[in-house]
Amino acid sequence: MVIAVSVPSDLDTDPGRSLNLAGSAVFTAAVMAFVVGFTVIARPAGYVAGGALLGGCAALAGSFVIIDRRAAAPLLPPALLGVRQLRQGALGGFLNTATTSSAMTLVTLYLQDTLGRSPLEAAATLLPLSLAVIAGSSLSAALLRRLRPAWVIAGGLAVIALADLALIPSAARLWAVALCAAGAGAGIGLSSVAATGLGIDVGLRWRGTASGVINTAAQLGTAAGVAVLLLIAAATTGVPAEGTGPPLAAWATGAAVAAAGAVRFAVTADRRRTG
Q: Which CATH code fits 80-274?
């Protein structure tokens, strides 16, 4: 009832257009092939099956582009994709989750499978992550009144990079891992609010679609980040188990990606300021 009263009527001048169900199905299949492919390829004797799935992912992604361009109601309207703010916001959303969800997934596996901690201990260790997200989001809203969104995104990604990197010397101490989790949570809180605000800074008719694009980019970041970092962890330390050691190379990779993203957004913000 509240939604019906408060949400304005749809401005679509052609409400008879059907949903792009074919494009949605192909896009979902491409993401699934990507995630499963990276998971399978990390296993012994899984190179052929994993490679085939990743090849199928590329084919499905290409098919999605063709289907969506020909659809009456494309999932990604060309006019919207040309908006720079949306592309920036989607990139920020992707990097946020790709560098936090993946690192924290590895922390969970390391705590339970390598160190033998209980699920309750692992959950308690990562609880500061969720609490810090709230604090980071509140701080982001305040910073956005004074700074460009790109600067806030850069700052959030820089905090994430430091948190991921700090996991390397902190892996054996639960209290230190909890602090790293809190840092990652604060970073994604800072960056995600700014990325979302930047991405939906479009015309009124496009805001619903832009919001969907930003959310989808964040979900893809989680899927891709977890898949890639698990592959790196399996290749460098083996499947998480007792005696395998912490996934240092994977955490370092997450930190490097977040740092590169921070530099990229800082450069973009500086160009806009001096331009």
A: 1.20.1250.20
In the block, tokens 């296993």 appear at 43
**Would you state the structure tokens that stand for residue 16, as one six-digit string?**
């008879």
The number of residues making up the chain comes to: 275
List, for residues 151-188, the tens digit of each pLDDT value: 999 999 999 999 999 999 998 899 999 999 999 999 99
Q: Structure pTM? A: 0.84
Long-range contacts of 9-16 (CB under 8 A, 24+ apart): 11/204, 11/205
Dihedral over Cα of 94, 95, 96, 98: its sign: positive
Name the residue ranges covered by the structural domains of the chain: 13-75, 80-274
Q: For residue 272, what are its two tokens?
A: 């806009």
User: Residue type for 230, please?
Assistant: L
Instruction: Determine the average pLDDT of the residues in 62-82.
Output: 84
